[in-house]
Sequence to fold (91 residues):
Amino acid sequence: MGRGVLLDYASWAVSQGLTLSTHTTTPIPLSSLLACAAAQEVTFKPADILFIRTGFIQNCVSLSGAEAAQYAAVVPAHASTCSRLPLDSLL
Fold:
């Protein structure tokens, strides 16, 4: 059993002057997560389950109607392979 640990990466990134784009594939380096954890005084233990707040919902809410429709019409490349697999291949 593990405990849930939350890092608020979105707030930390803004405090560091980083621009977040949650509608593109953007890697979050381990060094950034560790710096975020240190700034938020979060420590890790074996079996912890890491949750990362990326600001996705806030970004969605800020889209105009046209931007939201455009985003919804496109399946991200990183997600498309899962949706095309037959269910039997996942069992």
